[in-house]
Description:
By secondary structure, the protein is mostly helical. The chain contains 22 helices and no strands. 46% of the residues are buried. The longest helix is centred in the middle third of the chain and has 35 residues, at 221-255. It has one domain.
Amino acid sequence: MSSIKKLAGQTIWYGASSIFARFLSYLLTPYLTAVLIDSSFGEMSLVYAITPFLFVLFTYGMDTAFFRFVQREDYKDTIYSTASSSVISSTVILTLLMVTFNRPIATLIGTEHPEYITMAAFIIGLDALAALPFARLRQEGRPKKFAFVRIGGILIYIGIIYFFLSLCPALLKKNSNSPLLLIYNKDFGVGYILLANVIQNLFQVLMLYKELIGFKPMFNIQLWKHVMVYALPLAVANFAGMINETFDRIMLNWWTPAVSHKAALAQVGAYSACYKLSILITLFVQAFRMGAEPFFFGQSGREDAPKTYARVMKFFVITISVMFLVVALYLDIWKHFIQNKKMWAGLKVVPILLFANMFLGIYYNLSIWYKLSHRTSAGAYITFIGVAITLGVNYFFIPRYGYMACAWATFLCYGSMMVVSYVWGQKEYRIPYAWKKLVAYLVIVALLYFIHHALTGWWPRAWFSYVLATTFLAAYSLFILRIERKEFRKLPVVGKYI
Length: 498
């Protein structure tokens, strides 16, 4: 249990700062859906849909490789300098290429603003430069600086957006002679959001300059070759994973049955806004990955490591199943997170996407088997299965069903990846997951949602919906506490009350 406590501590420190930073960013959704028209929100979503792809190309799995190779004594002193030299060099080259070819990239994704691509290039480039310094902070156990840089960057981002999208328009409306209006262009719109992101990432790089340049100017070519053999399959898998995660917005823009390009962008905007309602599960999965990745590698040499991984999985599934109910059963409250009521038409995708993100989180847990056994190519194969499902379902069904096809494609993609990784992983690196119990937990929460949906459809009263939702959530929580009482009693602080 001490190892579980250690993971909990890491997840709380690094995860809490990441959760808070991302939560602040997510809080912009109500604001942006209020100040931007749906087509502009869709155009912004298209630009941000390509940034994860390109970030993977810029970093090509070096942060994960760093965690793996820094555990080895023979590479401990050279891995950071070698990895940093590689990432810095490639980032400069790729940023220049993006800026040079900004117009064809803009045409490809469906925006008429190549300057957005230029700013996206700097967003990704600066983010890539900060990736290894952030990884080093996590590896060295320096959560305070990690949190300060993350949260400080987000606060700057929010402040700049508010300045350009609210303060400046208000001054302009009053016919103010403020000198602030000299830097404001009312037609720049989405560009100000991207500009704020550039400044945010620049702040992060400046705050991490000691870590960024604080390595010996040495490049171990033999180590680099070993790292690339390990990292490139991860990069391929991550790139394919981004296709599964964000490329559906671009495909929706290409193939949705809309009467005009502006209407297509509005569909993208509605889908993207509703996707953000999976915020609780998304944030928790992100926080878990921040704490779990270095923890899993650190535990790999222990004899009881498989049992530890199995217990972590159990607590993970319990947590996300409760989060599913919190969002799905109270969707009538969560929908006000989206201020543009036209976008509420897309709320039916939310339960599907919640379950899809649960599958993705479970897959991240399962993926430890190929990372520890240096079978990272397996991750690429599994992810490409997901890519085939994503592309196939979206290609054939978006023209008929629009964003509903995107939601089901995501569900089927992550569900398939989860199952394949489990079956394959148990043959290569057996971990004693209590899979029957975990599947039962997922089935129960799905049934509770469908029962709630059916009963509230039959009697659509707000008070009835909330009372029923609270009853189901409480009943499920008590059921879990009863079944897992022995496990929960071993937890620090809360265990003595169970």
